[in-house]
Amino acid sequence: MIESQPQFLQGIYPFLGVGYEKLGPLSDKLVYTVPADKRTQLIYLRAGNSCAEMVCVVLMRDGIPMRYFPIGAKGAVHVPLAVVEDIFPETRLEVFFAAPPGAEGSLVIDVGLHLPLHAGGAQKVLMAHLTEARREALIACGLPPLSPQTIVDPDQLRAELETIRRSGYALSDDEAGFGGASVGAAVRDFSGEVVAALAVAGPAGRVRRRLPMFRDLVLEGASGLSQRLGWVAPAQHSIPDSKETH
Question: pTM of the entire structure?
Answer without folding.
Answer: 0.56
